[in-house]
Each structure stands twice: as C-alpha cells, then as structure tokens.
Amino acid sequence: MSILGNRVLRVEDPRFLRGEGRYLENMPLEGALAVTFVRSPFAHARIAGLDASAAEALPDVRVFTGADVDAPPFGPPPYWNINPGMARPLVAGDVVRFAGEIVAVVVSDDRTSGADAAELVMVDYDPLPVVLSAEESLAGDALLFPEIGTNVANFPEPDLEELDESLFEGCEVVVSDTFWSQRMSAAPMEPRSAAAQVDDDGRLTYWSTTQIPHTDRMILAGMLGLDPGHVRVVSQDVGGAFGAKTLEPEGVLVAWLARRLRRPVRWTETRTESMLGLLHGRAQRLEVTLGGTRDGKLLAYRLQVLADAGAYPILGAYLPNLTALMASEVYAIPKVEVKTVSVATNATPTTSIRGAGRPEAAQAMERAVDLFAAEAGIDPAELRRQNFVAKDAFPYTTPTGATYDSGDYEGALDLALRSAGYDELREEQRRRRAEEGPIELGIGLAAYAEITNGIGETEFGEVEITADGGAILRTGSFSHGQGHETTFAMIVAERLGIPVERVTVIKGDTAQVPQGAGTFGSKSTQIGGVAGRLAADAVVERAKGLVADYLEASTADVVLDLGRGSFHVAGTPEPSLAWGDLASRAAADGRLSELTVSHEFRGLPTFPFGVHVAVVEVDTETGKVELRRHVAVDDAGTLINPVVADGQVHGGIAFGVGQALYEEVVYGEDGYPLTDTFVGYAFPSAAELPSFERVEMVTPTPLNVLGVKGIGESGTVGATPAVHNAVIDALLPHGVRHVDLPCNGENVWKALQEARA
Amino acid sequence: MIPAGFEYARASSVEHAIELLGDEDAKLLAGGHSLIPMLRLRFARPSLLVDIGRLADLRYVREDGDRIAIGALTRHADLARDPVLKERSPLVAQVAEGIGDPQVRHRGTIGGSVAHADPASDMATLMVTLGAELVARGPDGERTIAADGFFHGPFASALAPREVLTELRVPTVADGVYLKHVRRAQDWALVGVAVARVDGATRVGLTSMGATPLRASGVEDALAGGASPAEAASRAGEGTEPPSDVQGSAAYRTHLAEVLVRRALERL
Amino acid sequence: MTQIALTVNGERHEAEVEPRRLLVYFLREQLGLTGTNVGCDTSSCGACTVLLDGESVKSCTVLAVQADGTELTTIEGLAEGDELHPVQQAFHEQHGLQCGYCTPGFVMATVSLLKESPSPSEDEIRHALEGNLCRCTGYHNIVRAVEAAARATT
C-alpha cells in the first residue's frame, strides 16, 4: 500500500521544536567579523561627501565605500529583457536611488560596535527629485538614470499605444476598472543573514539564507571572478522566504569582504533594515476591461499592467510577463489583449513574492468578472460557470500562449459552493440587507488557474543506498518550511519499500549536491520530487541487477517486495535479500556505489487551479472588515503528504488575506517608507484570521509520473481576489464598485463616501 | 536593533531613585515596555537608566475612601484580574486587559504607561476621563497632580525630571465603556474612546486624537445639554488635532471618533 | 558592566553584562541558547518569547540586567531528554510549524497561556497569541496545536 497520500508527520520537526533550528544566525563561525551596512535614508540624492573618520576612530572598525569595492554591479540576467544600464552598484557610487540603498559597509568585532560605528559614518546628501509614482515615472519628466534617457525598465521598450480598437465590438456589456495590486513585503520571520570564509587556497565558502544555493553560486562566482568549482554555497535552515530570499548585493559584499580581509565575516539584518532592503513585491497597477453579451458570454478582455519595479529594476520588472501569460485565467475568452510595462521609481526594487505575477492576474480577472456580474445582473457564480474552459478541453492553449495541462474548473466551483453553503449565504445576505443594519455581509468568489514550474526547469535528484540499507536523497530543491525532508523521503521510500525514517534528504549545500534549481515557483515536488522518484526507480533497477548476480537469476526475474523491502526471484519468495543485506554484501564486494544513481528531470509547466469563497462582515460605519469564513478548493494534482499540503494552503491563504485586508508598503512623500517596522507594516496575527476550510480536490497532471503540480502559492492566488470581491459584494447596495487594496477601514470608508457623493 | 550605551543603577527605594535621577539625562525604567522599544530604535538615548522595577511596595490596588489607590508599578496583567478593580472600577481592569498582548501585560506597568505620556496610550486617556489623581514624589516632597493637567504634549508630562510617579487614584466608577479601533488586535489604537459616569456627569476621553489624551468637551457639553448620543457624538472632533500617519488619516480618525463616541454612549 | 545572577532552565548563571544588553541577545550569545529568535525591532512578533518567573515575556524588550535574580525558561528547557513537552508534542502532531522560526516563541506563549487559562476557546487562543506572528502557517494549525495541548494537559 502506497504511503503517498498519507498524513505523515514531519521528520524535521524535532529540531525546530527543541530550539535547535540551524538558522544561519545560530551558526558559530570562529573569528568572524561583523558586517553592518550604512543605508541611505534618502530616496534620491547625490552623495556630496562621505566621512568615515569618526567611525574608523572606534577600535577595530573599518569602513568601505563604493570606491573600495571592485566588483561589478548587480544586474538582471539578459533573458529578462531589462535595461542593463539600470544595474545596481553593490555600494552606491555618487547617487542613491532608494531609501535603504547601501552607501557604506562597516566591519567591526561584533554587531553592537557595528551599530555604534554605522551611526558615526557621516554622509552628505544633496536631495534630488523623488519619483514614487509609477505613472509619473512613465511620463519621464524626472529620470532616475539620465544617461539612459528613460525610466522604462523593459529593453526594448514596449509599444503601449497600439491597442486593438475593435476589441470590444459586439459587446453589449463592457466594464472596466483600475486598481493597484499594492506593494508588499514578504516579511519572513527570519531576517536575512550571510556569512563567508576563504580558506588558504582561496576557496570561498558562502553561507546565506537563500532559496537557490546553486544559482547563487554561479552568480557569485561570476561577480567575484571565481571558478564556481571553488565556491561552496550553503543554505541551512531558513526561516521563511516566500520568494524574496536570493542573492543580493548584501551577500555579494559579505563574500567580497571575506576575500578582501582574509577573515571570516558575517551579517544579520535588523527587521528595519529588512523592510527597506529585502526586495518588495507586487506593485502592479492593473487596468482591466471586460466585455461580453448581456446574458453572460464573455467575449473580450484587456489587461494593462504598469509595474513599479523600484530603483534598480530586476525580477519584479519581468514578472508582468507571467501576469500576461495567465491573464485569461480559467475562462474561455476568445479575444485577450495584454500590455505590460515596468518602470523604475525611487523605491526598493521589487522581486518575486508568493505568487510572483500570478496573483495579480487573478486579482485583475476576478475583479473584472464580478464587475461584469454586477453590471449585467448575473449571479457571480453563474457567470463564472458559463465561461469556464470546459473539462474536456485539456490540454488547452490560451490566447496568451499558455498550455494548461489539466483542469476541472466547474468541479472546483461546485465543490466550493457546496462546501461554503453558497445558497444559504446568499439567503442570509438577503435577510440582512432587508434589515439594513450597519454590518453588511459580503460573499466573494475567486476562480483561478496558476502556473507552477513556470519556466520549465530541470531538477537533480540522486538516491544513494547506504551500507546499512537506508537511503540518502540528494536534492537540488531547497525547502525552507515546505517539509521536503518528509515529502521527498516519502516519495523515495515508496519506491524502495523502506520506512520513511530511513530516507535522509540532503539539500542546500553545493558541496553535497552538485546541481539544483532551488525552491521557488512551487516547482519542487513536481521536478525535485519526481527527480527523486526516477532516481529511486533507477536504483531499484540497479539493485535488481546485483540481486540477480547474488541469487544467480536473470535481472528480469527479480522482483522487489515493497511491503517487506526485499528482493526475490519471481515465484520464489525465498531466498530474499533485504536492502540491508544487499547493501552490506555489495559493500563487501566493493559494489555499493552501483546503488547510487542520479537523475535530472526537466518538467513542463503545470497549472494548478481552484475556487475560493470568502465571507466577510463589513462595518459600514467604521469601514472595518472581518473575515468570517474562508473556503478554499485548491487542486494541485496528486497529494504526496496532505498534512504538508494543508499547511501550504493555510499559509498561502493568510498571505493572500494579508494583501486583501491589511498589508501595504507605504512611502512618505520624501520616499522613506512609513512601514519600516512590524508596527507600520501590519500583517495579520491569529486574532485577525478565522480557521480556514480547505477542501481537497485532486486532478492529476499528465506531465509527470507522480501527477503532481505545485500547491505552494495556490492559496495566495485564490485568497486575495475572493476577499476583495467579498468586500465589494457587501457594499454593492451602497453603490460601491471599487475599493482600493488593502480593504482596510479607511479604504472602505473612502469608497463608501465616494459612492454617496 | 541595538540600543546606544547607557549607565544603569537600581533604586532600592523611591527616595533612592530620586537621588539617582540627579543626572539630567536619566530615565526611569519600570516594566520597560514604553522605554525599551524607543531605546532599540535609538529614538531615546538617555545616559542613565534608573531601574525602579523591583520596588514591590509600589505594586498594590486598594480602596482608599471613595477612590481606589493603584501603585504605579502594578502591571497591566495584575490590574486586569484585580478583584477590587473588577468590582469597584471595572473599566480600569477592562482597559488594562486590552493593552498590547499577554507578554506586554506581564511587564508593562500602569505608572510607566501613564508617565510616558503617549497620546496613543489607552490608560493615559482613561486617567484623564476618570479624573484620576496622580501622586508624584520628588526632591521637594510629594504632590498630587490632576490627570487633566498631567499631559503636556507627546511624551511630555507634568512630571519634573526628578519626580517619580508613585500612585494613581481613580474614582470608583460603576458605569464606563472603552472602545478602540485597531487595525490588528496587537496595535496601538487608531482612535480610542473612553466614556464614564463620574460624579453624575458623563465624561468622554479620546485616545490618539491630539498631542495628548483629550477630553471630548464638545460631546460633554452636548450631553450636559440633553443631547442624544448621536447628536453629542457629532461634536467628537471639536478641539482635536488628530495625526495623519501610516495607520490612518486625520479625517478618518475624526470620523471614527464620532462613530465610537456614539457607540460608547449608547452602550453606557 | 553590571553583575547579574539568574537561573535559566534550572541552571544558575553568573555573568557580567552591559546595561544595554537585551535579554534575548544575552541568552543567545552569552549563554549559547540560540533557540530563542529575534524577528523584529518593535516588540511586535514574539519570536523572542521566554518565561520569566513562569510568565511569558518578550525577551527583546527586557534588559538582561532586569532579569537578575529571576528564573527563566527558554525553549531548550521544555523537553525532558527524549520526551517532548506536551505543547511541543501537540505542535508536532498538528503540523503547527513549517519553517520553525516563530515556533519557540509560540510554544512558550502557549505554555504561559495554558497555565493561566487551561481550557481556552478558539477565540481566546487567537487573542492570547495576538503578540506572536507567523508568516508560514496562517495560524490554523497553531490554533489546533494549542487546543490539542490543552486537551492533553487537563
């Protein structure tokens, strides 16, 4: 009986429960100096002067500036088509372009003296005009990079003017809206850390809180002029990342310093530093227009995306491509037009955070669909149902060029509506509307499809049988909370017929795992888990060969009894060789290494989908929104470990609700963020959220042997639009058709006031 | 973040504390939950901290005639469950219960919170609303300061540099309501409203509507003139200067004040 | 520098500390008890929660000098050898942790909560934990864990 699909408790839990998590800040590093970054409080300024003498007068303090750092700027890879002239210097040269940009680096004995010294670095700033508005940036009156001549990050610049004038011909109903998917911070509980050490023959060991150790190694080696083979990157336990923890200038500088000083160095950021320096996410303005017939057949959809990519555009400037790819979501809309442009602003650069471009697509489409429903007088659930891509239409290629693998959107809708008691909720809403009390009930739907393993990556998995008959899986994936030590162990254990506890998963160390794609984009199980599966299968084949030799049979006649974890000749249960006996025998013969096999699996993108139903209570006097219930159907194919999958969905929902109701990075007029602490940046606690109602649904993908897609971001993609729609649904009788995100008290109050005006 | 450096002295008595406070740049440390956050962000950089946290004789709640005397070092957690308060002045226990989170309430003290004079402090507003008497001891002896005149501005109180707030004396008030609007449960109030019937008059206090905790005098006048809760509440913004910050705009705060005043009065 | 003496997880310690030394850094760096984490600058997140004389406190908002003469319990002091504390066990069984960074804080806050309120309702639990932030779990399974721990300890 397969262990897959069973609720298996996590093998990695004990160390975290006991306070023995191997977070980088906990790692002893003898003789390490502390690195403290001096950061600009100004959003845009010329550095007229910098005096580090007071800082360097403190004992054992050294200060490095941009002039000292002989390393190239940190720029985007060419295939993101972002202007390379906007690459970020590791340390600011003569201009700073966002509050939080590094202007100097302090090295001292410890964090405390570093903080004291950093305060004493005197920087003379000549303020320049601050551009915080993406619209203003697009207009181009104040340029962040005068020598480039534009603030547009895309390279080549897209043509935004050529819209299809005939797009909405024949549409009896056309609705439109513009809203911001607001700037967010990933806000992982663990701030970033990095450490580095160079040994006597120049080999660099670099530790960091990164999701992508192997990619970081390649970039770091390139930037420092090193052979990647001489660079070891290690990521241990990471306290959450959500897409935002990858190699950044801070890490490169730590490595550069270790080489320059020939001493180990380490850095851990403060939360305030993180709110400025950890790259932000979302920050897309979404302009939607949706047209169709009066009885609800959707005919045409236009999405225009303006991305605020921050000061040195990087991945965030590329993500609108994913937004565009998923623009039509779950609907069979014949005509779809998408235009995207990304601009630079004097804000922290943006990157991927949970969903990375796909939540924006769902937010845009689901708002448009609800607007259409309200305008046409059609129930929002029915309008969706009428326009879904049909169950028998897969593989389905969208007008935007995405080929969806599998889906059952109507099934998800039915399941969600039934689980939520949709009809009863509408009935309750009718009753309460008749009572005209101050608290309105809102019911919001969101149907979505999303893309995981979006760039079709390859993952490495190697299974090794150890002398005692256990197994090691070396994976290029890197879990930082997602439970791979259990899930991947289950996948391998299932193929070998050994207990889960006998499979050890090794990850995160380029010295122990030769290659890897890392973890982001919800791709780990579908490429890393599958690679492990295929490697395990290959090991079984090799084992059969060995057994054939030992039992003097032909390989084709050897079978693996999964229930007992032992091999025998078909038809002859004894003699049998259990893994332990086989391994020790092979070891004695010097043949144990035959039972180590690696596999690289290249996966195609897969398309999880789902439907969320959110139920809110909106206090129309204060504007405050309370999320009463959240029902989530999220289908990401085969479930390896439902415990872990549930957890991913819960966390994803909370992240999505955070965007819908609570969170926003807010800049003051001067370009310094008002949300530089967890007081200002208000992501929800347990007191703000209900228990969630996750409903399992499994529609496997045909694209890999496990039938798995990726569930890590699904909860987020579905949750934000469901809650956003619920709030506006509550306020429809008051004439409200738009509420800015986040739907906090003030934004709801503003919307009510505007509707009354 | 790491605080800037400072000297530290532990007071063995209030008198000792007063002596130690001789240094102009010294600050008192009680529970530390107003001061230490400011130290960590380097917003406060005293040269000396005088720790009065061990003065156990400043921790008490007792009836004293028609008032309840509360020792300044009584923690919010203890106020929240104090039987005397719950019986004779339950609003104090209720407000204490809602301050911060359990960890904060295990350390934060009523004296520390009030002396810090943050206009966003629920307890400071309550003291003003109830017409509390604040007892302070300094080099020139002991004096009683009316709560109404205690708050001078943001983080500025009537306490002289070397004075220690030792006791807060609140009236026994049977009827009272405190409502606060927060983004998240753990947050400081965007706006708070305290309403209490003291000596036959309805007093209304506002949190986060100005440079100090305020009395909503427009509301009180209206009520004295027989206005309904809704009528009186429409005057909530009178004399206020609410801030605009990341939590909310001044206009929104004024609106919230009107709503919460009306609701609090209806509940009274 | 100031002399302090305190008991941590049953063991007595004497140390010299700078007055500005936060208790959380004293525990982590001077005593090597790195199980307690620092998650923020503003006493918002609770990752640093320990028990001081049996009650939950945020150790980032306590100076080490204030802990002189007290009894502290950190996450490392909960389990008895191989046997996890019922709260730790409940978090494991209910999948109340993912990356684990906030977990010591939540576990200690839960121990303190159940001491003061042995059978809390879901609403009480959510409000008792409002000073602890988690970004991974959405709190759903954390609440289940606290409920399970309450059942296990009554």
How many beta-strand runs of chain B? 14
The tally of domains of chain B stands at 3
CATH topology title of the largest domain in chain B:
Uridine Diphospho-n-acetylenolpyruvylglucosamine Reductase, domain 3
The domain tally of chain C reads 2
N-to-C CA distance of chain C? 45 Å
Q: Which structural class best describes the helix and strand composition of chain B? A: alpha+beta
From the coordinates shown, what is the CATH architecture of the largest domain in chain B? Answer: 2-Layer Sandwich
Q: Please state roughly what percent of the residues of chain B sit in beta strands, choosing from under 5%, 5-15%, 15-25%, 25-35%, 35-45% or over 45%.
A: 25-35%
CATH level 4 superfamily of the largest domain in chain C: Beta-grasp domain
Q: Kindly report the CATH topology of the largest domain in chain C.
A: Ubiquitin-like (UB roll)
CATH architecture assignment name of the largest domain in chain C: Roll
User: Count of helical segments of chain C?
Assistant: 5
Name the CATH class of the largest domain in chain C.
Alpha Beta
Low-confidence stretches of chain B: none
Structure commentary:
The complex is a heterotrimer of chains A (757), B (268) and C (154). With 757 residues, chain A is of the alpha+beta class. Among the domains of chain A are: 281-453 and 605-756, Aldehyde Oxidoreductase, domain 4, CATH 3.30.365; 457-602, Aldehyde Oxidoreductase, domain 4 (2-Layer Sandwich), CATH 3.30.365.10. A seven-stranded mixed beta sheet of chain A has the order 3-5-1-11-8-9-10, with helices on both faces. A four-stranded mixed beta sheet of chain A has the order 7-12-13-14. In chain A, a hairpin with a 5-residue loop joins β15 (396-397) and β16 (403-404). In chain A, α10 (358-376) packs parallel to α18 (714-731), α14 (484-496) runs parallel beside α15 and α17 (642-662) crosses α18. Chain B has three domains: 7-50, Uridine Diphospho-n-acetylenolpyruvylglucosamine Reductase, domain 2 (2-Layer Sandwich), CATH 3.30.43.10; 58-171, Uridine Diphospho-n-acetylenolpyruvylglucosamine Reductase, domain 3; 176-267, Enolase-like, domain 1 (2-Layer Sandwich). Helix content of chain B is 31%, strand content 26%. Chain B contains eleven helices and 14 strands. Chain B has a five-stranded antiparallel beta sheet. Chain B starts with 6 loop residues before the first strand and ends with a helix. The model of chain B has no long low-confidence stretch (mean pLDDT 96). With 154 residues, chain C is an alpha+beta fold. Chain C has two domains: 2-76, Roll (Ubiquitin-like (UB roll)); 86-153, DNA polymerase, domain 1, CATH 1.10.150.120. Chain C is 33% helix and 16% strand. In chain C, strands 2-1-5-3-4 form a five-stranded mixed beta sheet, sandwiched between helices. The mean pLDDT of chain C is 98. Classes of the chains: A alpha+beta (757), B alpha+beta (268), C alpha+beta (154). At the A-C interface, α1 and α17 of A face α2, α3, α4 and α5 of C.
